UniProtKB/TrEMBL annotation:
Pfam families recorded: GGDEF
Protein name per Swiss-Prot or TrEMBL: diguanylate cyclase
Domain GGDEF: 178-311
GO CC annotations on file: plasma membrane
Cofactor needs: Mg(2+)
One Gene Ontology MF term: diguanylate cyclase activity
InterPro entries noted in UniProt: Diguanylate_Cyclase, GGDEF_dom, Nucleotide_cyclase, PAS-like_dom_sf, Rev_trsase/Diguanyl_cyclase
Xref: CDD domains: GGDEF
EC number per UniProt: 2.7.7.65
């Protein structure tokens, strides 16, 4: 319809037949035309003039956008014509306007203007409400996924997430030939804490231990609460000596840490088991089994100690 007008509109004024001008100005959407080569803004409907003012011979990027020193880096003009300069049809895209920060779905089209030059026709519909709803949904899904993978009490990975992440790390270590270590530890006599002080105090003990683990482990380590009072740390590209060093530091930190409960100072200890894989094919399940056996050896030898699978006890 625009390309059939007898004269191009000047500055958004009413050079179109009154009926067409009325239709364009009644749309709840931006309609504009700009020169495809010079970017001169040739037409702006009432919706656009209300938001951005009269074109007054300016470029489209000077009127419709903010902070642009030249043609916009996101301009789609090059998508509207082929290598021979022929129009390629409608291009649909979404973007956030740099001036008013509103989101728009744009339908762009190259066509011949009444004087023969190629112009860009864009019809842009405000979709900000839809984008905000989509973002709220995305955050809700992300939160739900995080909660599904997070132990609610301690904030660490839950058993499900630990096994999923741990399996990925195990397979990557096998492919790359990197060492992999697993630390498992269990709080000593934790049932007595629950029986004597109640589960609320027991929960505080678990939270305190989880905080220690989270602060001392590396960002790349996979942490998890995999049982009631049982925790695990999978350490990628880490040998037995390095994991033993962390386990001993954790053992000391847990033994030295206390909470106040029922007017008393309450503490606990933990028993540690370590297993490592380097140069041998091993599954995460097998690694956990080896660490579990080492941990129970630590308990049988007096608790509050670190034992390593495949090594004699010290």
């Amino acid at each position: 319809m625009i390309s059939d007008a007898s004269q191009p509109p000047q500055g958004g004024s009413g050079d179109y037949p009154d009926t067409l001008q009325t239709i364009l100005d009644s749309l709840d959407a931006l309609v504009y035309v700009s020169d495809l080569e010079t970017y001169e803004l040739l037409y702006l409907n009432a919706y656009g003039r209300q938001l951005w003012g009269e074109p007054q011979g300016r470029k489209c990027w000077q009127v419709l956008q903010a902070g642009q020193a030249g043609p916009c880096s996101f301009c789609t003009n090059d998508r509207l014509v082929d290598d021979q300069g022929h129009p390629t049809g409608v291009y649909v895209w979404e973007f956030q306007n740099t001036d008013n920060q509103r989101w728009y779905q744009c339908r762009d089209l190259a066509l011949r203007w009444t004087d023969g030059r190629l112009v860009r026709l864009e019809v842009a519909i405000d979709i900000t409400d839809r984008k905000e709803t989509e973002e709220q949904l995305r955050r809700a899904v992300a939160l739900a996924e995080a909660r599904a993978n997070t132990d609610e009490l301690t904030g660490l990975n839950n058993r499900r997430a630990f096994f999923a992440l741990g399996e990925q790390a195990t397979q990557q270590a096998l492919r790359n030939g990197h060492p992999l270590s697993l630390i498992m530890f269990d709080l000593d006599h934790f049932k007595q804490i629950n029986d004597s002080y109640g589960h609320a105090i027991g929960d505080r003990v678990l939270q305190n231990v989880a905080t220690k683990v989270d602060s001392m482990a590396r960002d790349a380590d996979v942490l998890g609460r995999i049982g009631g009072e049982e925790f695990a740390i999978l350490m990628y590209n880490t040998d037995t000596d390095e994991s033993s060093h962390l386990a001993e530091r954790l053992r000391q930190a847990i033994a030295a840490s206390t909470i106040e409960a029922a007017g008393q100072t309450l503490g606990c200890t933990a028993s540690f088991g370590i297993a490592a894989a380097h140069g041998r094919p091993i599954s995460l399940e097998h690694l956990l089994s080896e660490a579990d056996h080492a941990m129970y050896r630590a308990k049988s030898r007096g608790r509050n100690r670190v034992e390593t699978a495949g090594r004699p006890s010290s």
